[in-house]
Amino acid sequence: MTARYAYWLRLELAAGKEAAVRDxxxxxxxxASPLALPGRLRLGENRISFVGGPVTxxxxxxxxxxxxxxxxxxxxxxxxxxxxxxxxxHRNLLVMAPGREAPVRVTxxxxxxxxxxxxxxxPEGWAVGATxxxxxxxxxxxxxxxxxxxxxxxxxxxxxxxxxxVRERESERRVQAQVLVAEAALLSEAEDAxxxxxxxxxxxxxELSGARGVQFGGDGELAFDFTAPREDTYALWxxxxxxxxxxxxxxxxxxxxxPRDLRATAMIGFTDWTSPRRAHTKxxxxxxxxxxxxxxxxxxxxxxxxxxxxxxxxxxxxxxxDALALLPQDPAMDRAAMNxxxxxxxxxxxxxxxxxxxxxxxx
Length: 363
Known about the structure:
Elements: E1 74-77, E2 80-84, E3 89-96, E4 102-109, E5 113-120, E6 127-128, E7 132-137, E8 144-150, E9 159-168, E10 171-181, E11 186-189, E12 195-204, E13 212-228, E14 232-242, E15 249-254, E16 260-267, E17 278-282, E18 295-304, E19 307-315, E20 319-328, H1 331-341, H2 355-362
Parallel strand pairs: 3-10, 16-17
Antiparallel strand pairs: 1-4, 2-3, 4-8, 5-7, 5-9, 6-8, 9-10, 11-20, 12-13, 13-19, 13-20, 14-18, 14-20, 15-16, 15-19
């Protein structure tokens, strides 16, 4: 998870009296709404207004200017990358099937460089072959790549991390990566659709995965071919945003099956998310402007047969898509995806983890 909280719970029993505590249940609810706080600040003077009633005491605020790290050396992975926490944190996500070899490709560009790239902090037994290689960028306009091989282990839904380290003389650059252990049916950038029709155009933004996505100027469709590892129920995770005032309706089509009409939906986060007509994301009901920010949406109950299939998404003008993933739908995977994507709708009291997975998480 991106944050952890801890507290002590104290029970006081009356002295001298026989007392006992049985079947104690404790539920902790943490509520955080970034939109209730000041958003982006402009360089120079800014004004913050408080609305909600007569001011009876002075209100004092403290604001800071947060600058992202800038470098003339670009370091990217063959991962889905995205910003979280109001764009304060960046994540590189790799989805790998347990027990199967998978590539970790590191690409460098932007300036000349002669140095070494290493994978550090890999879980024990994951490395296949060398974990450090020499790399040279001879031409700033020509990217250079090195590739490593890992074999992830662990139960589906496990999340593990490691560092990609780029060393050049005395300098060192570290890029964190996360691995979700899962047999995904699909993990793709939106711009990598195999077929595009209608009013769909490329979208270039540094905040997107691979710095690219797609935008809908009107009605359009994107099609993705994939191979499902087995017959199972999957959930579609979709990173998207909508221009203010545009329709959030989306149509999902799977091969020749009946189209499924969806609509992006805000949830307070404390109810179940099983409606087949909704693409759910975390949002407080009073902050509908959240649709204009990039968020991950979950569409559940997608029944897939094993083998090659095609997924088609249709949207209207104002929609913008960044990346998507088809992951097995079960309590452990939903919890893991919720943590990674900060969708935050998973209700553990409605869908408890299997006891074995829960014990592993506690340890």
